[in-house]
Amino acid sequence: MYKLSNYYKTQDVWTLFLISAFPLHVWTLLLGFQDISWLAERTNFFDALSVISYGLVFALFESLLLLVVVLLLGLLISTKWGRSLRVGMLGMMVTCLSLISMISQLYYLMGWSFSEQVIEFLTQTNHPLWWVYGVSLAAIFVLFAPSVYILFSKKLLSIWEAIADRLSLLMIMYLLFDLFAVCIVIYRNVSGA
Amino acid sequence: MSSGFNRRDFLKFSVMFPVGVAASNLAKFFRARQSGKKNVIIVVFDAFTAHNMSLYGYARETTPNINKLADRAIVYHNHYAGSNFTSPGTASLLTGTLPWTHRAMQPNSRVVEKYFDKSIFNVFNDFHRMAYSHNEWVNTHFETFKKDIDEWIPRLQLCNQSLSDSVIENLFGNDRDISSVAWVRNAEISGGGGYAYSLYLSRIISYFEEKVYAKYLSRFPKGIPTSGTDNGFLLEDAIDWVGERLISLDEPIFGYFHFLPPHSPYRPPSEFFELFSKDGYTPPFKPRDIFADKKEHNTERLREYYDEFILYVDQQFGRFYEMLERSGVLNDTLLILTSDHGEAFERGVVGHDTSALYDPLLKVPLLIFEPGRNERMDIYEQTSALDLMPTLAYLSNKETPSWSEGEILPPFRESENSRRGVYAVRSYGAEANKNMQEGSVVLLRHPYKLHYYYGYSELNGSEKILLFNLETDPEEMKNLASLEPEITNNMLDELKDSLKKANSPYL
Question: The whole model's pTM is what?
C-alpha cells in the first residue's frame, strides 16, 4: 500500500512546488513586462499592472496544478531510489519540460523562421517532415537527457541541488509578488474597478 | 376516419395561404401607418471601409448584393466616421457629437456623464428600442445608455459561450474588461500569436477550444469568426435572429444592430475563401507612414482576407434586406447601412490601430433605404457620422436634438449646401476629464482635407500637417501643405480654434 510519507516529506513537496513554479513565474513576468508599456499606453498604469497581476495569479494556480502532476508522477518511482534522487529527478524533469515549452513559444515570440538554406535543404530531401520531426525529437531528447542522467551522476545531483536551493530562494520573492497580485485582483473585483 | 386534410382542403389552403401572408404584411403596413411612425433600423458593420467596397469603385467585386440594393437607396460617397476605432466612432454615431465632445476617446471608454441621457436611443423614446452588438466595446456604450434601451440583447446570446466567458463571468465578473485582456494574454495561444503567459494551461485550453470549433473548419477554413475573448459566432445566426425578432414585433421599432464583421480576425467562409488570392490586383504604392505598425505584415494577403470577409458581410446584408422586404417590414422602415470606422491596408498600417487618419480609416459606407424609394440617388457632399442622428430625428418628425453637432443630411435638409467643415478626431490616450495632450484631427472642407497630428513621441515635439485635394488626389499622395500655404493656414487656424474650444473645459 502507498504511504505518501515514504515518498515525500513536507520539505520535498515545498521544494518541488518552488521548482515547478519558478519557470512559470519567470515566463509570466517576462511577457508581462514586455506588454506593460503597450497596455499602459492604451489604458493606464494600474490596469496594465492588473493584467500582470492576473497573470501571476494564473501562474500560481498553474504551478499548483503542475505540482500535483509532478507529485503523482513521483509515485511511479520506486522508494528504493531515495527521496533526494526522486526530488532531484522530478525537479530536473519539470525544469526541462518548462524549457521546451518556453523555446516552442519563443519561436513565435521572436518571429523566428527557418532560414532559406534550411528550407532548401528540406525540400531537397525526400521526407522533409521526417527531418523536422526527427530534429525536434532529438532536441527534446537532449533537453530531457539531464533528468535521466541525474539518476546516475551524484555530481550532477549535487550541482542540481545547489541550483535548486538558489532558485527556491528567488521563487520565494516571486511568491511575494503573487501575494500583491492576489490583493490587486481581489481589490479590482470587490471594488468593480 | 379520414385524414382530415383532403383535396378540397388543400385547394382552400393553397388559395388562403398567400392571402394570409399578404394579409399579415398588410396588417403590419396599416398598423405602422396608423401610428404614423416608420421603424428605424441601423445596421452597422464594424471596421467596414468604403475604400474596399466595389459600390464606391474598388477594383475587386466585394459588394455585389449591396450594389444591387443601392438601386433603391440614397448612397453617400463621402461619408466620414467620427474617429478611426470603435469606442469614439460608435459614440459619435450614438450621440451625434465628436469624440472631443463626448470624450469616449480611450479604448472601451464611456461618454462623459452629461451625455448619459443624450443618445439616439433617448431621441426615439416613443419607439421600442433594441440594441445588439458582437463587440464588447459597443456594449459598454449600451450599458451607459441602458435606461433608454428597451431590449438590449446580450452579446453572448448570438455567440457561442466559451470557457473564457465562464471563467470571467463567474470569477471576475466585476472586472470584466481587464480580466478579459488578461485571459487572452494568459490562456490564448492563438490570441497572442503563438505564445501566452501560461506555459501549460494555454496549450490545454487551446487544444479543447480547437476541438470545439473543428466542426466549423469546413465552412470557415481560417476558423469561425470570433469576438471578445474567443466567442465564435456566425453572422447568419445573428442576422436571422434579429430579422425574425423585427418581423415579430408590432410596435414601431428603433433598432441599432452593430455586427462585428468585417473587423479582424478576417475569417471568410469557404465560398469566398481565397477568391481574390490570384486575381492580379495591385493597389497603388504608398510610402510607409510615421504611424505605421511596428510589426511587419503580409499586407496584401491580409487585404485579400478582409476583402473576402466583406463578401460575407455583403451576402448577409443581402439576406437581411430580403428577409425584411419579404415580410413587409421594409414597407414602413428606414433602413440604414453604415460603419463605425474604416480599415487600412496601406502605408505600413494594417487594421485601424494607428494614429493616422487617411481616408480608408475614416470613410465608411452610408446607405439610406426609404420606404417607396425605387431609384438610386448619389450624394457626393462630405458628410459625417454625426449627421445620422439629426437626420433620423427629422425623418421621424422629431425635433433636432439640441446637443447634436451634426446636420440634417442632403437631400432632406432645406438649404442646398452645407458650409460647415467635417471633422474626425483621435486621441487614444486622452482621459475623459483631461485635455488632449496628443491627438490626430482632420478637417474636411471640400475639396480639401487637412491632417493635423501633435504631441506624439514619433514627432519629436513637432507637428505634422498634411493637406490633400481629394478631388484631384483621392489616394492622398501629394501633400499640398507647402504648395498651398493660404488654404493650409486658414484651415489650420479653424482646426486649432475648434481644438482649443474642445479642450478648454479640461485645461
Answer: 0.78
SS3 B107: coil
Q: What is the DSSP secondary-structure string of B168-183?
A: HHHHHGGGHHHHHHHH
Residues B197, B176 share a domain: yes
Q: Cβ of B181 under 8 Å from any chain A Cβ? A: yes
Residues B346 and B214 in one domain: no
CA distance to partner chain B, nearest, from residue A162 (Å): 25
Which residue positions in chain B have pLDDT lower than 70?
Answer: 1-35, 190-193, 228-229
Give pLDDT tens digits for A64-87: 999 999 999 988 888 888 888 888
Closest residue of A to B438, CA-based?
Answer: A41
- Candidates B173, B181, B199; nearest CB to A102: B199
Q: Is the pLDDT of residue A118 over 60?
A: yes
Phi, psi of B72, deg, nearest 5: -120, 25
Same domain, B287 and B244: yes
Tell me what pLDDT residue B484 has: 97
User: How is residue B23 written as a grid cell?
Assistant: 394579409
Q: Locate the domains of chain A by residue range.
A: 8-191
Residue B1: predicted pLDDT: 39
pLDDT of residue B295: 79
Let me know whether B323 and B398 are in one domain. yes
Total count of domains within chain B: 2
Q: What residues of B are in contact with residue A55 (Cβ under 8 Å)? A: 182, 185-186, 197
Asked if the C-beta of B121 comes within 8 angstroms of chain A's C-beta atoms, the answer is no
pLDDT of residue B354: 96
Query: Which residues have CB under 8 Å from B132's CB, separation 6+?
Result: B152, B153, B155, B158, B238, B242, B256, B257, B258
Full residue range of the structural domain in which residue B222 is found = 160-232
B22: contact with A, CB 8 A cutoff: no
pLDDT of residue B7: 54
- Interval B119-158: pLDDT, tens: 999 999 999 999 999 998 999 999 999 999 999 999 989 9
Is the Cβ pair A32, B194 closer than 8 Å? no
Secondary structure of residue A133 in the 3-state scheme: helix
Chain B hits for A66, Cβ within 8 Å:
200
Residue type, B298: N
The CATH number given to whatever domain includes residue B135 is 3.40.720.10
Tell whether B430 lies on the interface with A, counting CB pairs under 8 A.
Answer: no
Cis peptide before B401 (omega within 30 of 0): no
For B194, nearest residue in chain A (alpha carbons): A108
Please tell me whether residues B301 and B206 are part of one structural domain.
Answer: no
Residues B354, B256, single domain; the answer is yes
